[in-house]
Automatic annotation (TrEMBL):
The lineage of its organism: Bacteria, Pseudomonadati, Pseudomonadota, Gammaproteobacteria, Nevskiales. It comes from Solimonas terrae. This is SDR family oxidoreductase. It comes from the Bacteria. Transmembrane segments: none annotated. Keywords: Oxidoreductase. Residues 7-189 form the Ketoreductase domain. One of its GO terms (cellular component) is membrane.
Length: 262
């Protein structure tokens, strides 16, 4: 069991959406927090909204261009070693394969895959020495099944599962735990911030996103899963698609081909 009360938690992508909700929820549970994102002003807003702002440190970070070792040192400067890392930062996609540039694919992979890998690697050695640590990875239902307009996003999320499933198999003897979270549609700005074929911003809320689960409810379910050391956690009504994909893949494939997802 992972009790986050009194633990030091580093959350990326903490300036909005699921990351912000997880920060607010963790603060109420008595955790010490290091919050990272690009926007320092938004991080300060989240810090001020936390139950215990004095136990919250702000660490602005651009995960598309950063020194992971220096980021670790900066993160540890406030409250000491990191007990729980929440790899939440990421960007979604709204573009067709035939229109999408390779630069866009590389940008998605850099933030959604390579950044979580780099942050995890920089913390693992200390976690091994302490024989304690928990890595939380915010994937997606799309990490289990591809959908239109999200080729790069689906690739990055699928890659997370391969990497962290393997990491779990290597590190379980060191008492390091991994929880991969697959949310469905959560009511955040993820679709507004999604990248388009030419690298621009999608700029509008998808209908399905607008009707999605409340971010705070999602955060509470994630922390409950972390508390019981869940290896994989599905959140939202869309999780049914994951089970259907396993048992009736042809049915899901037919539905996805006809889905209007933006």
């Amino acid at each position: 069991m992972t009790d986050i009360a009194g633990r030091t938690i580093w959350i990326t992508g903490a300036s909005s959406g699921i990351g912000e909700a997880m920060a607010l929820s963790a603060s109420r549970r008595g955790a010490r927090l290091v919050l990272s994102a690009r926007r320092a002003d938004e991080l300060e807003r989240v810090r001020a909204a936390c139950a215990h702002p004095d136990r919250v440190a702000v660490l602005p970070l651009d995960l598309t261009c950063f020194d992971a070792e220096q980021a670790r040192r900066d993160a540890e400067a406030s409250f000491g070693p990191i007990d729980v890392l929440v790899n939440n930062a990421g960007i979604s996609q709204r573009s067709l394969l035939v229109d999408t540039s390779m630069d866009v694919y590389r940008r998605i992979l850099e933030l959604d895959f390579f950044a979580p890998v780099a942050l995890t690697k920089t913390l693992i050695g200390d976690m091994q020495r302490r024989r304690s640590g928990h890595i939380v990875v915010i994937s997606s239902v799309v990490g289990k099944m591809g959908t239109p307009l999200r080729t790069g996003y689906a690739a990055a999320k699928h890659a997370l599962h391969g990497f962290f499933d393997s990491a779990r198999a290597e590190l379980w003897r060191d008492d390091i735990r991994f929880t991969l979270v697959c949310p469905g549609f959560i009511r955040t700005d993820v679709s507004r911030n999604a990248i388009t074929a030419d690298g621009g911003r999608h700029g509008r809320m998808d209908a399905a996103q607008d009707k999605g689960m409340d971010a705070m409810r999602c955060a509470e379910q994630i922390w409950a899963g972390v508390a019981r050391d869940a290896e994989e956690l599905y959140v939202g009504r869309e999780k049914i698609a994951i089970y259907l994909k396993r048992w009736v893949p042809s049915l899901v494939s037919a539905a996805v081909k006809r889905a209007k997802l933006a």
